[in-house]
Amino acid sequence: SHLLLQMNLCGRNLRRVTPEAGTCKEKPPLLSRVNGWSLPLNTLQVVAWTTFLAMTFTSFGIFIPLLPRVWRYVAYSVSFVLVTSGLFLFHFVVHLVAISTDPAEPNVRIKNYNKPVPVFDRSKHAHVIQNQYCHLCEVTVSAKAKHCSACNKCVADFDHHCKWLNNCVGSRNYWCFFSSVASAVAGLFCLVVVLLYILIQYIMDQEELRTDPHFEKITDENTWLLFLPFFPVRTKAPVLLIIGAAMLVLDLVSLLMLGHLLLFHLYL
C-alpha cells in the first residue's frame, strides 16, 4: 500500500554489518529499531505515503468522474470496487503490515528493546555473527539470520533493508512486502489506462469527458469541473492538463520502478 522505488534502495546490500572502528567505542550505544514506525522515519517512507495519497486523491477525485457514463460505471463498479476496495485496500493493509511487523529473530524479539546494543569490538571478534551467535544482540540466531546495521538487530531470514518501508524485510514480513509491490503494480497499471484514455479523449473529443449533468450549466468549453459529482469545483483546462500530466508521469515512473522491483523478486 502504498505506495510512491530504486533497486539500490530496496536491494540486497545490507547483508553484513560493517564492524565499528575503534573510536566508535566512545559513542553512545544504539537501541534496536522495532519496525518501520520507529523514529526517525525515513524520507523515502514519507515520499511513498505522500505519493500514494496524491495518486488516490487525484485519480478517484478528479479523473475517474470525467469518464463517459458507461466508462464511469465500469470504473466505479470494477475499478473502484476491485481496485480501490480490492487492490487499494489490499495494498494499504499489506503495506501497513510490512511496516509494522518486527522481522527480528525470535530470540531478539523476546529481549528488551530499551536495552542498549553493545558496540561491536573487532579486537575481540572477527564477525558480528559467529557460529550462529550474534555478539551484538547477544543471542543465538538461525543460520539465515543477518544483523542489519540500519535496524541494529538480527533479522530472521534476512532479505534486505527497505528504506521505503523504513523496515527490514525478512521471513516474517516478506509475503506482505511482495504483495504490497504486486498490488501497487496492478493498481498503477489501471490508473495509467484511465489517464491515457482521458488524455486521448481530450484531444479527440472533449464532449465525451463532459457527460456529467453538472456540465450542462457550463457554457465555457475551457471550464472544467473537478471532484464530481458531490463537490464540483470549477477550473480551467490548463490546470486540469497540468495535474493530469503530472499524475501520468508520476504513475509511469512509479510503475516502471515497482515493475522492475517485482520482476527482480519474481526472478529470485
TrEMBL record:
Compartment(s) of residence = Membrane
Per the annotation, which location comes first and is thus the protein's main one? membrane
What is one Gene Ontology biological process annotated in the Swiss-Prot or TrEMBL record?
A: protein targeting to membrane
Catalysed reactions, semicolon-separated:
L-cysteinyl-[protein] + hexadecanoyl-CoA = S-hexadecanoyl-L-cysteinyl-[protein] + CoA
Q: Which residues form a coiled coil?
A: none
| One Gene Ontology term, aspect cellular component | Golgi apparatus
Domain of life, per UniProt, equals: Eukaryota
The record's section on InterPro entries has: Palmitoyltrfase_DHHC, PFA4/ZDH16/20/ERF2-like
At the top of the EC hierarchy, this enzyme's class is: transferase
| Chain segments annotated as transmembrane | 46-67, 74-99, 177-200, 239-267
Q: How does it sit in the membrane?
A: Multi-pass membrane protein
Keywords, comma-separated and alphabetical: Acyltransferase, Membrane, Transferase, Transmembrane, Transmembrane helix
Statement: the UniProt record of this protein carries the keyword Cell inner membrane: no
Domain annotation Palmitoyltransferase DHHC: ranges: 129-268
- Mention one GO molecular function: protein-cysteine S-palmitoyltransferase activity
The EC number(s) attached to this protein equal 2.3.1.225
Keyword Transmembrane helix part of the UniProt annotation: yes
What does the entry note on its domains? The DHHC domain is required for palmitoyltransferase activity.
Q: Which family does it belong to?
A: Belongs to the DHHC palmitoyltransferase family.
Protein name per UniProt? Palmitoyltransferase
